[in-house]
Amino acid sequence: MAQDNATCWRDFVFLGFSSFGKLQLLLFVLFLSLYLVTITSNVFIIIVIRLDSHLHTPMYLFLSFLSFSETCYTLGIIPRMLSGLVMGGQAISFMGCATQMFFSASWACTNCFLLSVMGFDRYVAICAPLHYASRMNPTLCAQLVGTSFLSGYLFGLGMTLVIFRLSFCSSHEIQHFFCDTPPVLSIACGDTRLSELGILILSLLVLLISFFLISVSYAYILVAILSIPSAEGRRKAFSTCASHLTVVVIHYGCASFMYLRPKASYSLERDQLIAVTYTVATPLLNPIVYSLRNRAVQSALRNAFRGTLLGKG
């Protein structure tokens, strides 16, 4: 099937933000700035967690892998988008489009599962603090991270196969800046209802499974927090979850809006702007939220900056 598709169109063309005319240069400067800050922030979080021994705990191990996943996600999308803003519509091969969709979907799904793992970590830390070290041992942490990445790749592969089983003979122009499922589906010829249903089911499985696990973890956390007699104790317990909850709300809000809607509500031009929020803005929020709300990360960042300044001195 893939070979038949390729004989119809050997490549696709991203239209990107071509309709914005002269504003594309302004968008390039804006997105490049956000992209550089996103990459720098996430890489810096990974380095700080790696170098600061105080952050060698399961919670920050998972955070570093989330930052790594977000970094890979943006690397697979944003550079080509920036190039398109400068050079105009860009061609991408059939296999290149399928590859980009596979990796972008895989990293996005991996992020969901990593967030559910981080929720489980908070559950153990608050509901069974005396057994935290023994339960969240290195072996279990490695298994949780490995399962998250493997699950993400499997769901990403499933979504890619569901889309690229179709024929693309009617058009090769993608009204988007990367090979996302809605815009690629919109240029497929023939009956796409089965593929639309397949994407909806896979998206629901990823979001519902991961969100269900997070909800169960926080249900137990809430019960445990409410059982703490002092208000100060409840506040401290909840503060350890605040950063994770903030990231969960933003991440699942964007993902649900984009992938759990009926096809009739799609608007490719509007959705292209919305896609910027989860390809550029959302990966940036992860390090910002944890830097602003987490005292341990704040302290590690201050130490890193101080060490850098002393080293230059």
From TrEMBL:
It is a multi-pass membrane protein. The keyword Transmembrane applies. The chain crosses the membrane at residues 25-48, 60-82, 102-120, 140-164, 199-225, 237-260, 272-292. Signal peptide: none annotated. The keyword Phosphoprotein does not apply. Its main location: membrane. InterPro entries: GPCR_Rhodpsn, GPCR_Rhodpsn_7TM, Olfact_rcpt. Keywords: Cell membrane, G-protein coupled receptor, Membrane, Olfaction, Receptor, Sensory transduction, Transducer, Transmembrane, Transmembrane helix. GO terms for cellular component: plasma membrane. One of its GO terms (molecular function) is G protein-coupled receptor activity. Residues 41-290 form the G-protein coupled receptors family 1 profile domain. It is found in: Cell membrane. PANTHER family: OLFACTORY RECEPTOR. Belongs to the G-protein coupled receptor 1 family. This is Olfactory receptor. It comes from Mesocricetus auratus (Golden hamster). The gene is LOC101832873.
